[in-house]
Amino acid sequence: MNRPSFTERLANSRVLLIYPLLLAAVPALHLAAENAHDIDSRSTMIALFASVALATLIFCVLLLICRKGRHVAAMTGWVMLLFFTFGRIFDLLWEAMELTQIRQLLYPLYAVYAALALAGITWLWRTRLQLKSFTQFAALTTAILFAVCTRNFVHEYKHYCKDQREIAEQEAEKDRRKAAKKRQKEMTLERDSSADAPNSGVQLASFETLAPDSKAEAVSSDQLPDIYYIILDGYARADILQELFDYDNSSFINSLRDRGFYVADESHANYAMTILSLPSALNMRYLTPEFERYGWKYTNYDPMVRLTSKNKVAATLKDRGYRVVHFATSWRATHSSDYADVTYTLEPEFLQREFMGLFLRTTAFRPLAPTAADTHELMFEKLCDVPNDPAPTFAFAHFILPHHPYVFDAHGNRRSDVSPELNFEREKGEANPWQDKKSYTDQLAYASTRIRDTIDEIMAKSERPPIIILQSDHGSASLRSRETVARQQPFFVRERISILNAYFVPKTWQKDLYPQITPVNSFRFVFNHLFGDSYEMLPDKLYFSWYAWPFNAQEITQQIEELDEAVRSGRASPTNQ
Questions:
Q1: Which terminal residue of the chain, N or C, has fewer Cβ atoms less than 10 Å from its own Cβ?
Q2: How many Å separate Cα 459 from the centre of its chain?
Q3: Closest Cα to residue 331, out of 382, 274, 277, 396?
Q4: Dihedral of CA 284/290/292/293: which sign?
Q5: How far apart (Å, rounded) are the C-alpha atoms in residues 177 and 164?
Q6: What's the CA gap between 507 and 512, in Å, rounded?
Q7: How far apart are CA 233 and CA 352, in angstroms?
Q8: Domain ranges for the chain
Q9: Residue 414, helix vs strand vs coil
Q10: Quick one: CA dihedral 307, 309, 313, 319, positive or negative?
Q11: Sheet holding 227-232, edge to edge
Q12: In this structure, what DSSP letter does residue 5 have?
């Protein structure tokens, strides 16, 4: 009698029955591979193991009842297939049916899916088929899908780990150099006994009279003002809103001025993407060293994520006695801070991560996924609590609005259901959400009202007048066309890089502000006046790059200044391009 070959033994092996577990892992791996440039390995692993655990539980329960391995595997595979298609079918039906209440679709769809699951399990339970061929086919197909998704995920994760090692090595080298300089300085001071001792204590001049070159007197930390850095993501400059959206934002701008803000009404972002503009502003410098180090073809965002989380502004303020309060977003660059003493986040924390929320929305656990509206509401609420602590506080709050998804109407009512795109790099998609001008301006109107009320509450609760920087990281993108390379669309570039930029600082400081100031100089200005530092105010340069090659940033300062002037003088119009 001939001994069966390896292939024959494998075809009849019970090992094939684990294919539902591999099937359960595929959606998380696929979604992670789809978002390779903004991968979140921790959330991916949570989603991956939770999916496999769910499939294992279902398999074991059914096996205790049925005792027929191939049939139980098919039942489990059927249930998992329904589980992972629920959210996507919901999205398709929601868009097609134009309903107003989620429950109008959610509950009936649950009923349909429950009926399908029960019908499939019942048929498989009663069938006399042995399912041998089906099991072999299903196992082979699932193994191929699993292998492809795993390969893509591992490939990207390997690059992620490589980037992490490079960044860690660079930071360690910086620390070594800093320590060496400190030792050298200490040795020099010891040798030079006649040298003046450095001032020890925080320097602060009167809130009313401070000037950049004034000599500040040392004060205790409880006299320092709270500092708020509030980012409204994608908030367009007032003239852009008027030109492109036919939206008059003068009432909000005037309300800021009435409250004592200086509004830089000709301001631009230094970079056109959040992943570049925030680390630049928070480190008070341009990102040219990183661009040169990694090269223009580099596409991994991790160096910028690290610069945002471990930034110079927070480090400087923490060294000077400030506590750091961070407001977590679902976006990984502003999800956490290395210097945060307090972090406000939705609970449980891992559900707030963008990958996890998006993954849940594609499954039957869709109602468990928090929305962007939940994060925004929490941030507005907790911002008002910051003045309650007497310690000087630096609060950083990055609101991902009026940026899409458009989850609020103009009055702050939550829109019934807004499906996020399955790829985080939403600007690369075929649809352009910025062209939904009504939804954008409605959410902008709500954001304006809510942030104005929040500022009023902060001022009312503050024992000392706070310092508030209210800024957008970039503007809107309604003029973007997929037919032409982004940088070759001058009016779109101008729209994208024109921002809201307002400062609540003492009146005596405001003489040193100017309409064209950019975020790279915001904290240089504040530190010079507040602490008597001597940061040089940098030239206000503008750079543009887009999502395909974010590190390929090219200076566009002169072009944008000329285009702004042409539009103001009537020699050019973005609506007649």
A1: N
A2: 28
A3: 274
A4: positive
A5: 20
A6: 10
A7: 18
A8: 6-162, 226-576
A9: strand
A10: negative
A11: 262-263, 501-504, 467-471, 227-232, 393-399, 323-327, 342-344
A12: P
Q: What is the pLDDT of residues 225-268, one digit of tens each?
A: 999 999 999 999 999 999 999 999 999 999 999 999 999 999 99
pLDDT at 520: 97
3-state class percentages of the chain: helix first, strand second, coil last, to nearest 5: 55, 10, 35
As a whole number of angstroms, the distance between CA 472 and CA 499 comes to 6
- Do 515 and 265 form a contact (C-beta atoms < 8 A)? yes
The rounded distance, in Å, linking the Cα atoms of 83 and 113 is 9
Tokens of 456: 């009023």
> 30-54 burial, b if ≥16 CB within 10 A, otherwise e?
bbbbebbbbbbeebbebbbebbbeb
- Helix (H) or strand (E) holding 20, with range, is helix 19-34
Beta bridge partners of 229: 396, 469
CA 48 to chain centre: 22
Nearest CA to 23 among 84, 106, 113, 68? 84
Q: Is 284 strand, coil or helix?
A: coil
Instruction: Give the CATH class of 226-576.
Output: alpha beta
Q: Residue type for 439, please?
A: S
Contact present, 290 and 304 (Cβ < 8 Å): yes
Q: Per this entry, what is the length of the chain?
A: 577
One-letter amino acid for residue 306 of the chain: R
DSSP 100-153: S-THHHHHHHHHHHHHHHHHHHHHHHH-----HHHHHHHHHHHHHHHHHHHHHH
Give the separation between CA 63 and CA 67, rounded to whole angstroms: 5
Q: Which residues contact 269 (CB under 8 A, 6 or more apart)?
A: 277, 472, 473, 474, 475, 497, 498, 499, 518, 519, 542
Q: Which two tokens stand for residue 365?
A: 């656990």
Helix (H, G, I), strand (E, B) or coil at 397: strand
DSSP secondary structure letters along 63-82: HHHH--HHHHHHHHHHHHHH
Lowest-confidence range among 302-311, 338-347, 366-375, 538-547? 366-375
Q: Indicate the Cα dihedral angle 50, 414, 475, 343, nearest 10°.
A: -50
Cβ neighbours, 10 Å, residue 223: 12
Q: Can you tell me the distance from the alpha carbon of 35 to that of 49, in angstroms, rounded to the nearest whole number?
A: 19
State yes or no: pLDDT of 206 exceeds 50: no
